Amino acid sequence: MKGRSTEEPQGGLPRNYLRASLLLLIAETPAHGYDLLEQIAQLGLRNVDPGGLYRALRVMEQDGLVASWWEHSTAGPARRSYRLTDEGVEWLHAWAGALREGRRFLSAYLARYDKITERAPVESLTT
Predict the structure, then answer these.
(1) At what angle do helices 50-62 and 17-28 cross, to 10 degrees?
(2) Nearest partner of 46 among 8, 17, 26, 23, judged by Cα
(3) DSSP code at position 13
(4) Cβ pair 36, 28 in contact under 8 A
């Protein structure tokens, strides 16, 4: 891509997708931070900083989206576990709606892109 502008294509996931992903994982089953860290990659978030994940959980708790409690274990130290609050469930539904809407727009874009690339190779579109 010659002459790159300041508006380069930005691939990736939506902003605050970590929060949406944590809501989904906790909705599936209450969990502690380490479990969430292990599962988060399945939703496309690779190399999540553990400190960032725990900070996100604390902020989500302060915002009233999750509640936590200490689970004591005979095999190791106590762990903080998380569950969704009623407000967290509402935000989970809101995120699902927003992601569905985003998928609709992305599908429309890709369908139009596929039509032009079926007619002619992309390289010949500039001539």
Answers:
(1) 80
(2) 17
(3) P
(4) no
- Residues 77 and 72: their CA atoms lie apart, in Å, by 7
6: left (phi over 0), alpha (psi -120 to 50) or beta: alpha
Q: How far apart are the first and last CA of the chain?
A: 16
What domains lie within the chain, and their CATH numbers? 17-126 (1.10.10.10)
Q: What are phi and psi of 51, to 5 degrees?
A: -60, -40
101 is written with which tokens?
């809407």
Cα–Cα–Cα angle for 39, 58, 14, rounded to 5 degrees: 55
Query: What token pair was written down for 12?
Result: 């990736």
Per-residue pLDDT of 54-106, as tens digits, reads 999 999 999 999 999 998 888 888 899 999 999 999 999 999 999 999 999 99
